[in-house]
């Protein structure tokens, strides 16, 4: 049976709750609800369709991506993807998150044909049920708001969709080895 998998950075609980409050406020103000379904996260890789028989191999393969030093992820203000009609909290794109993303891409290329090429770190607050007009309205509203936070990324997580919600399969704690792997960008 085919399954969907998500490799993501999950912020600490207190920050997740703060961002969930923003998502709920956006949902109530603009009557958009789809962004409330997934957990608060920064996507590192999405695997749209993988036969469940490969799950254990995926879990083991991702262990190779733990070779990273913990780093600080900065979050600053709001932006959007016009083509996807998604509004989000912007994450700073650093060498550290780019290296982690490249390691995860390398570990998952055998499991997916549609590997994301580039990374735009973000935490979505509205998407999918947002019309073009509403997208402009939501983005204009949040462009007048400010948001600043940071957190230490010392792990990433593998999640699996069960047909109605995302469930955490495994957390991968940072385990830097001497001579941390750096992949050319």
Provide a compact summary of the structure.
By secondary structure, this protein is α+β, with helices and mostly antiparallel strands. It contains four helices and eight strands; from the N terminus they run E-H-E-H-E-E-H-E-H-E-E-E. The chain has helices at residues 13-30, 55-62, 95-108, 132-143; strands at residues 2-9, 42-51, 71-81, 86-91, 122-126, 148-153, 155-161, 166-173.
Properties at a glance:
4-stranded antiparallel sheet, 4 helices, 185 residues, alpha+beta
Describe the protein:
The protein is an alpha+beta fold. 28% of the residues lie in helices and 33% in strands. It contains 4 helices and 8 strands; from the N terminus they run βαβαββαβαβββ. It has helices at 13-30, 55-62, 95-108, 132-143, and strands at 2-9, 42-51, 71-81, 86-91, 122-126, 148-153, 155-161, 166-173. It has a 4-stranded antiparallel sheet with strand order 2-1-7-8, with helices on one face. A 4-stranded antiparallel sheet has the order 5-4-3-6, with helices on one face. A hairpin with a 4-residue loop joins strand 7 (155-161) and strand 8. The radius of gyration is 17 Å and the shape is globular. The chain starts with a strand and ends in a 12-residue tail after the last strand.
